[in-house]
């Protein structure tokens, strides 16, 4: 295992947007998908007839629905369940002019390719990473749209544990105004934390897809009851076409610190206003804590010595399969906490956002792990084939998505990777 320490103190975000403001809408896209277990290249087109396909809701894991067999190429390590290729199609109505429109996938296992109205949006081989595509330029003028997703988990074996197959995490449709907080675009740190006061720095990336325009940015800190306990304005910001960063500082007196025994959460609310009125409101959950690792004395949280009593936790839910189930996640983590656990290692990949949300609210520290292998494979068709091309993008997206969770204490960039036995591991670790 190779690991890196997280920043000293950061905030939780969970699902990046947890409340909506004028101009921004986030909608679950989980219901009413058509599914076909098999391959058909014509299924990417908008006019394809999918009326005979199975109707289901996401999250979905088709492997757990199959029959156990020693003949399945997944082998014993993956439970002897079938894998293969599957297609998903989602029909939805949304007229052009609704704003900038994006689709967010929390995780698809694996080698996914996505189309909107027949236009190829891209591929993502990593089965555990969250990713986004913009739909705006290719939305249908009559408002009738079709998303098509091909999932290829046919190259087996590709893992040392059960992975599941399909769109096994949640999918979201998000619309924003032309000037809006960017995807995963808020990074909040606390340069100084004590029982008396916490200094808070919010780095806010604002994406503008329209003309140059002046905007104001305001940050408010809300307590558990929704009361504003701190606020600061960033003054005027000139938004050019692209991304502009605005950093705003505020101070909170007598902060309620986050800890496993008392996982208190605040909310950060960012408001971007332009000359045309309120453009965007963006809210994330927050938790304030300070920690350090002392080489002689160990780990300290909020100035107190603490032992990490943790477990390695894979992403599936046993007999329920890999499909994200928030009730099962809560039950699993509650049992672990009741037996004395205070820390989780996400073995051996980025977790579902919901797991980190529950760790934030329940008070479990997290080692957020990225990879089970680098260039040297552990199974015949694993991520090593994609590592060279994709690791930098995947790792950056993982950190940007998860960096504000108070539960995340350590980042791990590899689990028992085979490069650790020669000098290539040193070179690669420097790149990471």
Could you provide a short overview of the structure?
This protein is 12% helix and 40% strand. It has 432 residues and is mainly beta. The strands form six sheets. It has a six-stranded antiparallel beta sheet with strand order 4-3-5-10-7-8, with no helix packed on it.
What can you tell me about this protein's structure?
The chain is mainly beta and 432 residues long. It is built from four helices and 25 strands. A six-stranded antiparallel β-sheet has the order 4-3-5-10-7-8, with no helix packed on it. Helix 1 (326-338) crosses helix 2. The protein starts with a strand and ends with a helix.
Quaternary state of this entry equals single chain
The sequence of SSEs as H and E is EEEEEEEEEEEEEEEEEEEEEEHEHEHEH
> What percent strand?
35-45%
Question: Helix fraction?
Answer: 10-25%
**Radius of gyration over alpha carbons?**
22 Å
Rounded to the nearest angstrom, the distance between the terminal CA atoms is 14 Å
Q: Could you give the topology of this structure?
A:
Blueprint: E1 2-5, E2 25-28, E3 33-37, E4 54-56, E5 84-93, E6 100-105, E7 112-116, E8 119-124, E9 131-134, E10 144-153, E11 171-176, E12 179-193, E13 197-208, E14 213-222, E15 228-239, E16 242-253, E17 266-274, E18 277-286, E19 291-294, E20 298-301, E21 304-305, E22 310-313, H1 326-338, E23 343-346, H2 353-362, E24 365-369, H3 384-402, E25 408-414, H4 424-431
């Amino acid at each position: 295992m190779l690991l890196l320490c997280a920043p000293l103190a950061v905030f939780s975000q969970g699902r990046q947007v947890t409340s909506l403001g004028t101009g921004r809408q986030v909608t679950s896209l989980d219901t009413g998908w058509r599914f076909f277990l098999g391959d058909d290249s014509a299924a990417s087109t908008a006019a394809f007839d999918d009326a005979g396909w199975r109707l289901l809701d996401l999250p979905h894991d088709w492997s757990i629905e199959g029959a156990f067999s020693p003949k399945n190429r997944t082998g014993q390590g993956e439970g002897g369940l079938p894998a293969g290729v599957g297609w998903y199609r989602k029909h939805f109505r949304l007229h052009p002019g609704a704003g900038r429109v994006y689709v967010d996938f929390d995780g698809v296992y694996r080698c996914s390719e996505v189309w909107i109205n027949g236009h190829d949006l891209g591929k993502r081989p990593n089965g555990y990473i969250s990713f986004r595509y913009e739909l705006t330029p290719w939305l249908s003028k009559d408002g009738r749209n079709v998303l098509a997703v091909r999932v290829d988990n046919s190259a087996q074996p590709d893992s040392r544990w059960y992975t599941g197959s399909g769109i096994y995490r949640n999918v979201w449709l998000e619309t924003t105004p032309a000037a809006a907080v960017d995807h995963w675009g808020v990074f909040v740190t606390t340069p100084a934390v004590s029982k008396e006061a916490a200094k808070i720095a919010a780095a806010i990336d604002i994406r503008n897809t329209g003309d140059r325009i002046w905007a104001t940015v305001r940050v408010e800190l809300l307590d558990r009851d929704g009361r504003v306990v701190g606020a600061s304005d960033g003054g005027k910001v000139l938004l050019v076409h692209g991304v502009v960063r605005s950093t705003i500082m505020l101070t909170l007196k007598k902060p309620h610190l986050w800890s496993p025994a008392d996982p208190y959460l605040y909310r950060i609310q960012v408001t971007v206003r332009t000359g045309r009125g309120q453009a965007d409101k963006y809210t994330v959950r927050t938790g304030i804590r300070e920690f350090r690792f002392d080489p002689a004395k160990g780990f300290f949280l909020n100035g107190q010595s603490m032992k990490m009593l943790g477990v390695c936790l894979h992403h599936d839910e046993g007999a329920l399969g890999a499909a994200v189930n928030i009730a099962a996640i809560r039950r699993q983590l509650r049992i672990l906490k009741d037996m004395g656990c205070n820390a989780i290692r996400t073995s051996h990949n980025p977790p579902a956002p919901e797991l980190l949300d529950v760790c934030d609210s329940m008070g479990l520290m997290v080692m957020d792990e990225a990879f089970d292998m680098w260039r040297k494979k552990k199974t015949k068709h694993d991520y090593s084939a994609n590592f060279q091309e994709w690791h930098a993008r995947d790792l950056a997206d993982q950190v940007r998505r998860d960096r504000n969770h108070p539960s995340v204490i350590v980042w791990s960039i590899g689990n028992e990777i085979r490069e650790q036995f020669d000098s290539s591991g040193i070179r690669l670790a420097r790149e990471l």
